[in-house]
Amino acid sequence: MKVGVIAGGISSEREVSLRSGQAVFNALKELGYNVVFIDANIDLCEKIKKEKIDIAFLVLHGGWGENGAIQGMLEVMGIPYTGSGVLASALAMDKEATKKIFLYHGIPVPPFKVINIEEYEELNIREILLPCVVKPSQEGSSVGVSIVKKEEDLKSALDEAFKYGDRVIIEKFIEGKEIHIGVLGNKALGGVEVRPKQGFYSYEAKYTKGLTDYILPPEIDKYLYEKLKDLGLKAHKALGCKGGTRVDMLIDKEGNPYVLEINTIPGMTETSLLPKIATLSGYDFKALVKEILELAIKENEK
Q1: Has 207 been annotated as catalytic?
Q2: Residue 180 CB partners (closer than 8 Å, separation 6+)
Q3: pLDDT tens per residue across span 222-238
Q4: CB 287 within 8 A of CB 280
């Protein structure tokens, strides 16, 4: 069986994806798999045909690598792949759609408002309650995200978010602990508490060593921890996700949990959260990679 690790892509998260992909490629090679690394550009279809892969290990972050487009292409080509399918990928990449499905399933989310580019021109900024979080509807890795505490900073935050699409989410700022739950297959692996040393868990804080402290497991009581793991698995299932995912949550100062989003292709770099969380269930990096691949193989055999 020939495995094609597909990484890179053309999104704002390209560099992180290449790092994740190289780590997965190295792990599969060390495990003895027949594996090839494929950089996903606009000629991806031709590259896949040339390499004649039997299964794709997707390590694409953002853009058409994570929104279901590549997944749909692989299905048309008859090539199985790791992770979530077309619909779950598309839903998880769209924060507005994700929140609406969570609400339908009784999964708590922070109060939010969605505005499009046309509405922005007539928006009365003074009507927006502060502090708030401004984020693009379809980006990952905290790209284009701002925490706004002063009215004079709101316009620049909205302008930044609209660089990444024509819909922006304005979300109530929840002050408290940030917890990420890892899910693999139909099991919650555990969680990690992230404590950025400066501001919030930004792109820089995520991918620069030393800028964030990681607490494994989170410093919360056991009952709440189990509740978060159950909530993470429920969110994973609500969108119809498969393989390994990471569910991002906040806990306010009263202990109330809120689910922010699901990452259907979590980072697999040396600072990434899913590999850290997996260690709580006894998976080292190579074991995690192998399990993600084997879940896709089993799914294809159904």
Answers
A1: yes
A2: 191, 192, 194, 246, 247, 248, 249, 273, 277
A3: 999 999 999 999 999 99
A4: no
Does residue 243 share a domain with residue 297?
yes
**Whole-prediction pTM:** 0.91
pLDDT attached to residue 203: 61
Residues 268 and 183 in one domain: yes
Q: Say whether 201 is catalytic.
A: no
Catalytic residue among 81, 164, 207, 258: 207
Q: Is 141 a catalytic residue?
A: yes
| pLDDT beneath 70: ranges in the chain | 139-142, 199-208, 270
CB atoms within 10 A of CB 213: 10
Active site residue 261: yes
* pLDDT score, position 272: 87
Q: Is-catalytic flag, 175?
A: no
Residues 125, 259, single domain; the answer is no
Residues 154 and 188 in one domain: no
User: Which of the listed residues 141, 172, 203 is the one where a domain comes to its end?
Assistant: 172
User: Has residue 296 been placed in a domain?
Assistant: yes
* Catalytic hit among 66, 178, 193, 261: 261
Which two three-digit tokens encode residue 82? 């790791």
Rounded Cα–Cα distance for residues 14 and 261 (Å): 20
- What is the domain count for the chain? 3
